[in-house]
Amino acid sequence: MPSESAPGGRRVVAVAAYARNRVIGDHGRIPWHIPEDFAHFKRETMGLTMVMGRLTYDSIGRPLPGRRTIVITRNRDWRVDGVEVVHSLEDALALADPSADLVVAGGAQVYAEAMPLLTHQVLTEVDLDVPGDAFYPEFDRAEWRETRREVGPGCEWVWWERA
User: Fold this and answer.
1) Are the C-beta atoms of residues 23 and 124 closer than 8 Å to each other?
2) CA torsion 39→62→45→126, rounded to 10°?
3) In principle, which of 11, 56, 99, 137 could form an S-S bond with 52, CB 3.0–4.6 Å?
4) What is the pLDDT of residues 13-70, one digit of tens each?
């Protein structure tokens, strides 16, 4: 995770994996299997608060150990043990500790809504073109600077910081 923080101390970091065509998911599942990327996701998110949409949570199926989970859903009746439920990204930001890093973990709608608030992105660029129905949003690379890049199996991990 990058070391510099935004004004106020909080870093808001998107952690995502996307294919060359920006696909992040297809019918609620990740359309590739890269175990090293799962380990990378765990390293980047361990000990942090994660915010995600309900469909992303459903695709994971459980709260991830060692991480606080806040799920955004429109369904006012949705509840799961071990998960904090909110109904907007604004509510998630208000619920999270304002001095602690916050990880945006998907899906497409949550990434798009959070993009203007992000201070960092940790992106896995998967070397595939795959069909899908969920996409990582485009971002203006002139507003970002790449701070690190590592080659992985069938992917590259790229760390971005808002310029």
Assistant:
1) no
2) 50
3) 56
4) 999 999 999 999 999 999 999 999 999 999 999 999 999 999 999 999 999 999 999 9
| Three-state secondary structure string covering the chain | CCCCCCCCCCCEEEEEEEECCCEEEECCECCCCCHHHHHHHHHHHCCCEEEEEHHHHHHHCCCCCCCEEEEECCCCCCCCCCCEEECCHHHHHHHCCCCCCEEECCCHHHHHHHHHHCCEEEEEEECCCCCCCEECCCCCHHHEEEEEEEEECCEEEEEEEEC
Please tell me the total number of residues recorded for the chain in this structure: 163
For residues 10 and 98, the answer to whether their CB atoms sit within 8 Å is yes
The backbone torsions φ and ψ at residue 29, rounded to the nearest 5 degrees and listed phi first, read -135, 160
What the block records as the tokens of 146 is: 């790449």
pTM of the predicted structure, to 2 decimals: 0.93
Residue in the structure block whose two tokens are 């992000």 = 118
The answer to whether 123 touches 139, Cβ cutoff 8 Å, is: no
